[in-house]
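The pair is quoted verbatim as follows:
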Amino acid sequence: NLLGQIEDLNNRIAVQEHGSGGASALRDQRDAALSELARYLDISTVESPSGVVDVYVGSLPIVLNGQSRGVELKKATVDGELEAQLVVAADGSPLDISSGQLGAMVQFRQEDLAQAIGDLDTFAAQLIWQVNRIHSQSQGLQSFQSITGATKVADADAALNDEAAGLDLPPAHGSFQIHVTQLSTGQRLTYTINVDLDGINPAGDTTLTSLAADLDAISDITASVSADGRLQISADTNDFRISFSDDTSGVLASLGINTFFTGTSARDIGVNSVVAQDVNLLAAGRGHAVGDNQAALAIAGLRQTGVDELGGMSLPEYWSRHVEDLAAKLSATRQQVDADTVVLENLQAQQQAISGVNIDEEAIDLVRYQQAYQASARFLSVVDELMRTLLAMV
């Protein structure tokens, strides 16, 4: 909009002045538009003999031969991240925006905002992971007849800790226990499932397919991989129920088996619909003991528990550190603004001293010129009176 105003004023000044000057009001309007434009971009100007002004950002013209070339925002997704860049609308040339309000906005978006989003995602990811690690190896008031993992695996034949598997929170080398309980007899059988992810023998590392096969080999349950890459486990009859415990590998939490949260970041965090639809599946206890609350206490204890992935800080400590860092940056920015404001006011005062009009000086000059005019008029009046007197005497 500002560039359009400058273009219009350029045309009107050129028509009115024809290169001879005199369009003072229009020039004042153009100077005001250029001053406002300079708040957003670091610009330089060049005036031609015709009176029009060209505007440059660095070496790129955004007003050329008096005509606006436009500025627009170009967006693109690079490696899954949205990137924004200011370009010249006429030809798409990228503008180097390092100062002005637009430069500050770009810098804020690329640095401070990106860091804040990253810290929030890190906090949410660890909240999801730490709670799910506890919940997935605990039991609720009711066990499962069937369960499907909430997390999809990109490649069912890739090791679960391999990038090809596509797990944002991959498991580690370890094991977990699965319990099969017969309701009619109360008998509970426990099976240990090893998760081989030590990398010593890559061909033998646990994949989603091999894990499903190991589970499927257990009596009275069936396990498979769904078409979309999820682990499915179900009891063969209504008389059996399934539960889990002692997961040292984190594979249950990684695959979304018996978890409380879904998602991997602040963008997609949510409560597992399985738990939301049946609160009896809320895993608050351990050891299949009725009334036990060890899991609930462990989850509550995350407020004080240091997390290795967060540098040993607890979840509240990590977020408090983020808030403190942001507050320190904000304070430093405010101090810089105060200092820059003083400099700006001094520069504006110097500019006005050079290019502005001093009302007091102009008033004094006006009085002096007025008195000189009056004196000249009086002199001429006296001379005229003398001439008339001399003519009369002759």
Notes: The mean pLDDT is 91. The chain has nine helices and 14 strands. The first strand starts at residue 44 and ends at 47.
